[in-house]
Every structure is written in C-alpha cells, then in structure tokens.
Amino acid sequence: MPVNATSAAAPSPLVFAGFPASSWGFALRVWLAMMLALYASFWLELESPSSAALTVAILALPTRGQGMEKAGYRLLATAIGVMASIAIAGVFSQTDGLLLAVLGIWVGLCVYVAAMLDGNRAYAAALGCITVALIAIQQIDTPLQVFPAGIARGAAIGIGVLAVALVNEVLAAPNYHPVLAGRIEALYDRVKALTHGTDLDSAAAAASLLHDIAAIRPEIASLTTESSIGTARTAAARSALVDLVSVLSLGRMLAALPVTSAPAQSANGPVQKAATLTAISRSWLRSEISHKLAQVRSSLDALHQGVRPYHAWRAPLYRSRRIAAKAGARAAISFTLIAIFFVLTGWPTTELCLSLVAVILGLGSTAPAPRTFTMVTVMAMPIACALAGILKYFVFNGVSEFQLLAIGLAPVVIGFALLISSPNPLLSSLGRLTLVFTIAVLAPTNPQNYDPEVFLVTSFFACLSSVLVLAAQTLLPPLSGDQRVRLLLREATDQLGQLDRWRVRDLAPEEAAFRDAGRVEQILSANGASALNGQIAAKAMRCFDQVESLRRCRAELERLTQGPLARLVQDARDALAQRNGAAILVAAGALSKAASQNNLSANSAIAVLVPAATIFAPSQSPTEPSQGKQP
C-alpha cells in the first residue's frame, strides 16, 4: 500500500544515548515544569512545596491532552479527598480504633470505585484514598491541622498543574490525536483484513482484536482537554471503535454460516430452503459489514478533521462488581491489619508509614496486577531513598540556593523521565515510582532541612511501608489472573442466561457489543503479558458470539412485532429462548415464507437468525465455536 511505502521511506528518528529526540524533549519539559512549580511554591511560601513537584512527576505524560486530563481529575479528586479528610477527622478524631477502622473502610471504598472505572477516572478514585492518607492520617494526632494541611496541599497541586500546562504550551508539547488516529487506523486495517480473509473463525485472532480495540477506550477521553475541538475528536474516536467491534461481531456471524453451494433444482426441499436462507443471510451480512466499514472510515476522517462523526456512539465500560468488591475488601483488610500491627508495636511517629501504605494500596488498585505493582514499589523505594540521601548530603550538602537545587535535580529528573517514556512497561513504572518517591523523601523546602535523624526515620518508614504492604498481600493475596478470568467467564455465562428476561434497553446493539468486548479485553489482560491461552480465548469468544447473536436477533425481531409477522416473531423468540438451533432455523424459514407472501422485507431478521441457528447448534463443542469456513 502507498501508506506503508511512505512509512518505510520516512527517515528514522534521531536517537541519543538510546532514547529518541521526542523522549529527550519530554524529559526536558518535565524538569522545567518541576523547577517552575518549586520556584513558584518557594516564592509564594507555600507550606507544602514538594506537593507541587510531586504533581509534576505524576502528570509527566508525553502529550498535552493526556497531562491535562489527568490534571483535571487530580484537582477534582484532591477536593473530594480534602472534604473527606475533614469529615473523617472531625467525626472520628477522638475514637482511636474506630478512626483506623473508618480509614480502612475509606481505603477499601476508594479501591472498589477505582476497580469499577478505568484510565484517569480510576486514578481519581485512588487519589481520593491517597489524599486522605496524606492529610488525615499524617495529622491523626493533630486533627485541627487537617483543614490547613488540605488547603496547603490543594494550593501546591494547583501550582503544579499550572506549571505543567504552561511548559507544555510554551514548548509545544505534541498532541495525542495523531497518535490515537494512527492506532485506530491500524486496527481498521486489521479488522478489514480479517473480515475479508479466511481466519475470521479463529477465536484467538478475534479475541486479540477485541482486546486491542477495547484497550484504547481509556485514552480517548484525553482528546477532550487537548483543544477546543477535542470533544468532537473524542466522539469520532469513540464511534470508530464501537463500529470496529460491530464489524467484527458481524464478521463472526458471517463465519458461522455453513458452507453451501447454490441451490440446485433437483435438491430436496429442506436443503434448498436452508441454502436459500443462508444465501440471504450471507448477502445481508456482507452488505452490513461493508456499510459499517464505511462508517468507521467516516469516523476516522472526522477524527482527523476535528468534526463530529455521523453518529456519536457511546462506548460503555464493562464493570465487574464481584472483582471490584473483592479488591476493595482485600485493600481494607490489608490496611487494617497493618494499622493493628503499628498499634501493637507502639512505635511513635508511624503516621508517615501508615499514610504511605494507603498510597501504595491506592495506586496499586489502578495497576493490572496489584502485587506486581507492590513488588516494583519495594524495588523503587530503597533506590529513591538512596538517591534522595545522595542529593541532600553529597550534592547539595547544606546549600539553599535555588539554582543549585535545579542543577542538582536535573540528572535525576531527566533520567527518570526518560525511563517513563520507555515502551517497556516495567521500566516505565519503575521510573515513575522512583521519581515520585525520590521527590517525596527529599521533600524540597525553603530553606532545605538537613537533619539526618529526620531523613533516616523518613527513609526507614518509607521502605517499611512497601514491605508491609507486600507482607499483607502475601497473607491475603489479591485476586490472581486465573481467579479474575473465572469470575469474568462466569459473569458472561450468567449474562447469557439472563438475556431473555431483559428488555431492550437504552444501549444499542453496537454499544452493548463494545461493552462485551471490554469484558473480553479484561479476560485476556487478567494474566498480564502471559501468552494468550487458546482455550480461554475460545470460551470468551463463544460467550461473546452467543450474547451478540441473541442481542442482534432481539433487536431485528423487535422491528417486526407490529404487523402480520407478529406471531412468527414470537415463535422465533421462543426458539431463541430455548437455544434450539433447529427450531431457530425453522422459525427463520417460516418468517421468510410469510414475509414473501405479505410482500414484506424481513431479510435483516432472517440474516441474524440463520447464523444463530449454527451458533446454538447442539453439536457445538463446549470450548470451541463451530464456525463455518467462508469460501
């Protein structure tokens, strides 16, 4: 294709020390924004200037839209967390054990909400837990300081957000929509190739595509904050993804059709009728797939141009309340156990450690594997403490000039920002966590505090917090990938059994299909970067095919409920409720005959009933979908 030829001829990006020029530009922006935030905090004499620097480290994202979206959620979540801190401290400040129990419940609630969301919305839910940890828990013995501490933290975060926005604007940080459009274009090519190829009945190939399509959903929202036309681009990207899932769903139905030759005059009646129904279904499905592909192309054009698409589909998120509840309960119990440990030991000044425990639990709830995140934290924390000590006692060594602070922090901030830009998820996560913890332990102030006892106590409790969380997760392990897969597959099976009792709701079949694609994405992501399990992919796609087939049949039959075909429509619904493939095919034939006699068109309903008869065939394997090969 010409596009590939152009890409092949494009010059390779400049690389220095193993990182492209774009990564160096990103690292430079992070350092400049952090220094600007610190300078403004020192000049305004804020009580918590390190919070401004931490905000920059947390908002360190390579494109403008991603950073601004996360900044908005950070401000919102901070406000909610400050209000929660004031309420908790005001009501339970004198209750000792009850206060710790309430804090544990709050941690569990935030983790539950984070597990029900995705992207930066999940981060905002986790930040509600983190804000309470850094305000209410650290002021657990001085509840009257909760309100001033909350105001100081909010002001510092505001300074950090403004610094990031200003630096990104002045240094022309790249937009995200070209990158996102390129990824959706690639998915469009893959879906188009699959629907026109011979591997459409492959469960692994289809599940992988659904995973990649649904995985982009959390990133779409960042386009809204990118520019004045960001809302239109968000709607266009969302519509393109929903239609891609719809194309794949229709393609799977097409692949389920039996391979039949053209009906011969000498063929017996039932065979000829089945071949005629199959031909009607194949023709309609191919036409609908072509129509949907054209709509995807139209949405992509709208994304590039910054205009609203032909139809603004919603892209609902699949939420597993069982998994979220189990994650929230485990986080609450882990926090409470660690709090009881500190009560029993009677150690003084353990507020920092307990607050960092809540921080790790909160941030871990947004990671695909919380225990892996905790292990990375255990690695990052000693590195951060060592770097903070080197900076404080060997690089700065008693100086207080801001210029020296900026120069001393430059290698650390730029180095870890380069790691953050790495395509390797482990290195990127390690770089971000180490940068955040280094700034947190160093805690830049004006004038700088060089008390070695304070530094050693801070470092000790910082390292202890990650070790205690890891110990708690060893005692009460988070849900494993296999456990999440079993729960998600059980929910898919339950949905299939309950679908007949549902009314046609406000979700269109295309939107509901995207939500189910999100469940497939969660199933395939449950074990992280592990190789795709063919049996699990087959089970996930079998449930997806059956649910989407039923939903399509219900939607198409709904259009025929009024009129002379109403009785036959009810017969088709009864056959679908029984999951009887032969009865479904008989209902499709009766519907075709009656429609012809009444000069009506029922091709769309017939087109989805025929593959449903194959999908619910009694001879089907429990793990592999019996799809028909297309010629």
- From the spread of the alpha carbons, the general shape counts as elongated
Overall mean pLDDT: 87
**Total of helices:** 24
Structural class: mainly alpha
Oligomer: single chain
Q: Give the % helix.
A: over 70%
| Rg from alpha-carbon coordinates | 29 Å
Strand/helix succession = HEEHHHHHHHHHHHHHHHHHHHHHHH
Sequence of strands across the biggest β-sheet: 1-2
Give the amount of beta strand, in percent.
under 5%
Low-confidence stretches: 1-10, 262-267, 619-631
DSSP summary, beta strand count: 2
For the termini, the CA-CA separation is: 25 Å
Main beta sheet? 2 strands, antiparallel
Could you outline the blueprint of secondary structure elements for this entry?
Elements: H1 2-9, E1 15-16, E2 19-20, H2 21-43, H3 49-58, H4 64-92, H5 97-116, H6 119-137, H7 146-170, H8 177-195, H9 203-214, H10 217-220, H11 230-256, H12 269-305, H13 321-345, H14 351-364, H15 370-396, H16 402-420, H17 425-442, H18 452-475, H19 481-498, H20 509-525, H21 534-558, H22 566-578, H23 581-597, H24 603-615
Antiparallel strand pairs: 1-2
Describe this protein's structure.
By secondary structure, the protein is an all-alpha fold. The protein has a domain at 17-175 and 318-475. 73% of the residues lie in helices and 1% in strands. The chain has 24 helices and 2 strands. It has helices at residues 2-9, 21-43, 49-58, 64-92, 97-116, 119-137, 146-170, 177-195, 203-214, 217-220, 230-256, 269-305, 321-345, 351-364, 370-396, 402-420, 425-442, 452-475, 481-498, 509-525, 534-558, 566-578, 581-597, 603-615; strands at 15-16, 19-20. The protein has a two-stranded antiparallel ribbon with strand order 1-2. The two termini are 25 Å apart.
